[in-house]
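Postdoc handover notes: sequence design on the structure in folder B. Input tokens:
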């Protein structure tokens, strides 16, 4: 399995609903020393997951952590993800995303943010209604 580019296009985010695929993606990320990210189908909803423990040499600065934490809080307040979603510091999970396309968009944005590119995350946030 090739490492994901950064920023990663949403269509390249692995779908890891199958335990075998999930384990293979995690193993590949660990062997490559990169941040693991994937989307998982949960009935008619989707879950976004990312794990930085697969990248022990990768340092995520405070600005990136703060941006991810703020984004998760914003997504919770908008009702787009469940309140028990997690904003790290090592494992990130966004529960109950409404569709595969949106889950992939959020996963790609999260992945980019964990590598210091905050633009995709800012663009993926829900817009305030007027």
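Designed sequence:
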């Amino acid at each position: 399995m090739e490492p994901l580019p950064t920023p990663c296009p949403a269509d390249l985010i692995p779908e890891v609903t199958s335990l075998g695929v999930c384990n293979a993606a995690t193993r590949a990320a660990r062997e490559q020393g990169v941040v693991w990210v994937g989307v998982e189908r949960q009935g008619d909803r989707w879950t976004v997951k990312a794990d930085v423990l697969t990248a022990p040499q990768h340092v995520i600065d405070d600005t990136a952590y703060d941006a991810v934490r703020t984004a998760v809080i914003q997504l919770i307040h908008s009702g787009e993800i469940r309140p028990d979603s997690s904003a790290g510091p090592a494992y990130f999970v966004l529960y109950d995303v409404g569709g595969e396309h949106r889950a992939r968009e959020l996963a790609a944005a999260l992945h980019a943010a964990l590598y210091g590119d905050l633009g995709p995350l800012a663009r993926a946030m829900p817009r305030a209604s007027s």
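Context for whoever picks this up: The beta strands are 36-42, 45-51, 86-87, 91-97. Don't rerun without checking with the PI first.
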